[in-house]
TrEMBL record:
<dbReference type="InterPro" id="IPR002328">
    <property type="entry name" value="ADH_Zn_CS"/>
</dbReference>
<feature type="domain" description="Enoyl reductase (ER)">
    <location>
        <begin position="8"/>
        <end position="344"/>
    </location>
</feature>
<dbReference type="InterPro" id="IPR013154">
    <property type="entry name" value="ADH-like_N"/>
</dbReference>
<dbReference type="InterPro" id="IPR013149">
    <property type="entry name" value="ADH-like_C"/>
</dbReference>
<dbReference type="InterPro" id="IPR050129">
    <property type="entry name" value="Zn_alcohol_dh"/>
</dbReference>
<protein>
    <submittedName>
        <fullName>(R,R)-butanediol dehydrogenase/meso-butanediol dehydrogenase/diacetyl reductase</fullName>
    </submittedName>
</protein>
<dbReference type="Pfam" id="PF00107">
    <property type="entry name" value="ADH_zinc_N"/>
</dbReference>
<keyword id="KW-0862">Zinc</keyword>
<dbReference type="GO" id="GO:0008270">
    <property type="term" value="F:zinc ion binding"/>
</dbReference>
<dbReference type="InterPro" id="IPR011032">
    <property type="entry name" value="GroES-like_sf"/>
</dbReference>
<dbReference type="Pfam" id="PF08240">
    <property type="entry name" value="ADH_N"/>
</dbReference>
<keyword id="KW-0479">Metal-binding</keyword>
<dbReference type="InterPro" id="IPR020843">
    <property type="entry name" value="ER"/>
</dbReference>
<keyword id="KW-0560">Oxidoreductase</keyword>
<dbReference type="GO" id="GO:0016491">
    <property type="term" value="F:oxidoreductase activity"/>
</dbReference>
<comment type="similarity">
    <text>Belongs to the zinc-containing alcohol dehydrogenase family.</text>
</comment>
<dbReference type="InterPro" id="IPR036291">
    <property type="entry name" value="NAD(P)-bd_dom_sf"/>
</dbReference>
Length: 362
């Protein structure tokens, strides 16, 4: 079996590995049909420690990357309801189910949380082992490349849920990358009256309007555009999906008094906050981390299955596993504006799955 393994900073290698073997109780073995690359993967690629240091290390050394997989069940362990031949999207969180946060249903806050591709082997491989409970079957009418985007779609679903969006709200999405463009669609579906996307790249602004945004503007024009749109009031909800301290500051600035700013862009920077101004404006600052397997992820899959959220326009590149470094990670670093969502096809172009074929080869 071949997999993309992380050995250290900017040291990702496609290597041959022993066959995975049969899954343990409650787990399944998947043939991976598609796996997306996201900004978090890039952060790991650029900043990973040596393969024997946490959080990169897997139980047996270097880690197989990839936390946005979709695949076909080729073998099940005991006590599994999934069937061989079923296509599934993988939510990715390996949570304990017993800590304080898991008992509350806050699985993304689990005290011992790991994820596929982040602390445990992931989906940039021909096959993977994964708990059945985080595998959600999806309709055969949905392309596997689209199913792989269930994970980022569920990030958007959770953020909109945490925003407590009211019908008719004016929403601004700061950052028109894949998460921002998914956010704009989910917010509209959840009742937003006006959706504004702020994005410096012209092609992404054009894509935002094609996907239903009322307005897509460059950052330097956003303040005046929002003032004109809201008669100087500001946005009811601002989603920060740019992942930089400056975009966080702007999102707070463009939120109206009594409004809500939701942070989901990943950044290690700091934010200087004028506490008196923040108090007097009664704004809310809410963080939204990842997703849950039982609420956000099923919603995301349903939105993709029904075509209510469009993801094909977000896929800029489909590449093979052999191209994952040159046409995936390095391409995203060299020309970030030219690549939106890169999807890896570890087993080549996807063909319709048939259970009989899988039983014969699995």
């Amino acid at each position: 079996m071949r997999a993309a393994r992380m050995y250290g900073r900017r040291d990702l290698r496609v290597v041959d590995l022993p066959e995975l073997g049969s899954p343990p109780p409650g787990w399944v073995r998947l043939r991976v049909e598609a796996c997306g690359i996201c900004g978090t993967d890039l952060e790991v690629y650029l900043n990973a420690p040596r393969s024997d240091e946490p959080p990169l290390s897997a139980a047996d050394g270097p880690l197989t990357m990839g936390h946005e997989p979709a695949g076909v069940v080729v073998e099940t362990g005991p006590d599994v309801d999934l069937q061989v031949g079923q296509r599934v999207a993988v939510e990715g969180h390996l949570f304990c189910d017993t800590c304080f946060w898991c008992r509350r249903g806050d699985y993304a806050l689990c005290a011992t949380l790991r994820s596929t591709g982040q602390g445990a082997d992931g989906g940039l491989a021909e096959e993977m082992l994964v708990p059945a409970r985080i595998c959600l079957p999806y309709a055969d009418t949905l392309a596997p490349e689209h199913a792989a985007l269930a994970e980022p779609t569920s990030v958007a679903c959770r953020a909109v849920r945490r925003a407590r969006l009211e019908p008719g709200s004016t929403v601004v999405v700061v950052g028109g990358g894949s998460i921002g463009l998914l956010l704009s669609q989910v917010a509209r579906l959840r009742g937003a009256g006006q959706v504004v996307v702020v994005e410096p790249v012209k092609r992404r602004r054009e894509l935002a309007t094609c996907l239903g945004a009322d307005l897509a503007v460059a950052p330097e024009d956003a303040g005046q555009a929002l003032a004109d749109l809201t008669e100087g009031v500001g946005a009811d909800v601002a989603f920060e999906a740019g992942g930089r301290p400056e975009t966080v500051r702007r999102a707070l600035e463009w939120t109206r008094k009594g409004g809500r700013t939701v942070l989901l862009g990943v950044t290690n920077g700091t934010l200087e906050l004028d506490l008196l101004s923040f108090l007097l404006s009664e704004k809310e600052l809410v963080a939204s981390l990842s997703h849950t397997y039982d609420v956000d992820f099923p919603e995301a899959v349903r939105l993709l299955e029904t075509g209510q959220v469009q993801v094909e326009p977000l896929i800029s590149d489909r590449i093979s596993l052999d191209q994952v470094v040159t046409h995936g990670f390095e391409a995203l670093l060299a020309e970030p504006d030219a690549h939106l969502k890169v999807v890896v096809l570890p087993n080549g172009p996807v063909e319709p799955a048939r259970a009989a074929d899988l039983e014969a080869t699995g």
